[in-house]
Amino acid sequence: MAEGKLRVLSVTSEAVPLIKSGGLADVAGALPLALAPFGVEMRVMLPAYPGLAAKIGPSKVVWAAPDLFGGPARLLAGQAGGVDFLLLDAPHLYGRTGGPYLGPDGKDYPDNPERFAALSWAAMAVCRDGLTDGWTPGVMHGHDWQAALTPLYLRRQGVACPSVLTIHNIAFQGLAPYEKLAALRLDPADFTSGDLEYWGQISTLKAGIIHADQVTTVSPTYAVELQREEFGMGLHGVINARPGGVRGILNGIDEAVWNPETDPEVRNYSLRTLAPRKGNRKALLKEFGLKETGGPLAIVVSRLTRQKGLDLLPEVLPAFVAGGGMVAVLGSGDRDLEEALAGLATAHPGRIGLRIGYNETLSHLMFAGGDAVVIPSRFEPCGLTQLYGLRYGAVPVVTATGGLADTVIAANPAALAAGVATGIVMHRTDPLALHMAFSQLLALYAQPETFTQIRKAGMRADFGWSRSAAAYADLYHGMRA
Fold it and tell me: Does any domain span residue 260?
């Protein structure tokens, strides 16, 4: 290790390239490499879900415990994608069919509180005792509720390791019944309204917000929104009571993976040569069984939930396709939304295409061939989808909330005249606002020079990790003992 390097333990429930269910995985996997130029050596710790150990190549045991919440556990150190990983191998907690959080029946594992409390406890132990290879973290950085008990454990065990907690989505708070206090190795004395108690339950996220030395979230606007009742999900008072507040650091994207000039999944193009994009559009139309109308091709790549505002689509899309638009949807989520979108696709063959599920390769083609990416979220902590859209020239259609507000410049007359507009921005999430946004998309697309200007302005924007990594590095270095 180079002199002066700061060692940081990142604790997360998922990270690329090992496992992904959402944007948290992209952030956790990209941050270590982005931080390296700033004097930070980060290791990423997550559960050893089935099959993950094989993905980190040759590994070695660097920590072990005879009893971690009901069974033996060990940490396996290895690498994947240039990132140093620590996998918490505890088969009694993580060796299951299903996903990281849900069983094959689609329901939460009933012992999820214990599973992720164990992750937090092991992280605390690493900070306290170090690893057998001589590595000891100088800062612990936990992500979301799954790692949020770590700051509390650090304090209660007297471990002098500064802690950072990043809130990726405050809607998920890690709630558990009071009866699990002992199972989670928590002191009943901490079960108060001023600590981890939340309406009669344990809130691991609340505990993390209170006990972490620094709390961050994933965009400056979301940091402000969290202080308000309508966005704070019942924790706005806790956030407002923090002396240091919450710091918003915008997420970035991996510009090596998301690069239309080199992307192996698409016909490559750039700001200078947009022409190959037409080939991607043609391939995308074929993939979804759509017929060319000459109008804009809008894409949706998302979890199909009300948070994302996608329950508005059934009411609004018929008018959009009647005006010449086409729509390709890739995602899964709420069953009623899946069924409603399937009904739309059946009612509008050749104009609306739907693929239930998620396909990383197909998503690259969608950004490379779509004209607009639709994200009418009711709240959006940061969002990566709009950043992929900007990078690939798929003009974002978004609500002015969270990271969407921080990254997309509305195509209003002043921004268009200045040549800086990068998208279409709504200020409400309701059918009328989305209808007007789609109408604006149809109108702008009918002006090829103006639409190309918007597309290129977005492609010129810089949303890589360098600035965000510098902000995290500054935070860490300011905390080191």
Answer: no
Token duo for residue 291: 């017929």
The angle formed by the CA atoms of residues 274, 276 and 281, to the nearest 5 degrees, is 100
Same domain flag for 68 and 104: yes
355 beta partners? 330
Indicate the residue type of 435: H
CA angle (407, 413, 414) in 5-degree steps: 70
| CATH number of the domain encompassing residue 377 | 3.40.50.2000
Same domain, 247 and 287: no
Contacting residues for 343 by C-beta, under 8 A, at least 6 apart: 314
For residue 22, give its domain range.
6-252+465-479
21 and 74 together in one domain: yes
Nearest-angstrom CA–CA distance, 426 and 443: 16
Residue 448 in domain: yes
- The rounded distance, in Å, linking the Cα atoms of 334 and 328 is 18
Indicate whether 368 and 456 sit together in one domain: yes
Residue 346's Cα: distance from chain center in Å?
Answer: 31
297: nearest Cα among 353, 345, 347: 353
> CB–CB of 15/83 below 8 Å?
yes
- Identify whether 130 is part of a domain: yes
Full pLDDT tens readout for the chain, 481 residues? 344 789 999 999 999 999 998 889 999 999 999 999 999 999 999 999 999 999 999 999 999 999 999 999 999 999 999 999 999 999 999 999 889 999 998 899 999 999 999 999 999 999 999 999 999 999 999 999 999 999 999 999 999 999 999 999 999 999 999 999 999 999 999 999 999 999 999 999 999 999 999 999 999 999 999 999 999 999 999 999 998 889 999 999 989 899 999 999 999 999 999 999 999 999 999 999 999 999 999 999 999 999 999 999 999 999 999 999 999 999 999 999 999 999 999 999 999 999 999 899 999 999 999 999 999 999 999 999 999 999 999 999 999 999 999 999 999 999 999 999 999 999 999 999 999 999 999 999 999 999 999 999 999 999 999 999 999 999 999 997 5
Q: Looking at the DSSP assignment, which residues form a beta bridge with residue 102? A: 108
Q: 308 and 453 share a domain?
A: yes
Residues near 211 by beta carbon (within 8 Å), at least 6 away in sequence: 151, 152, 154, 155, 163
Give residue 137's Cα distance to chain centre.
Answer: 25
Tally of domains in the chain = 2
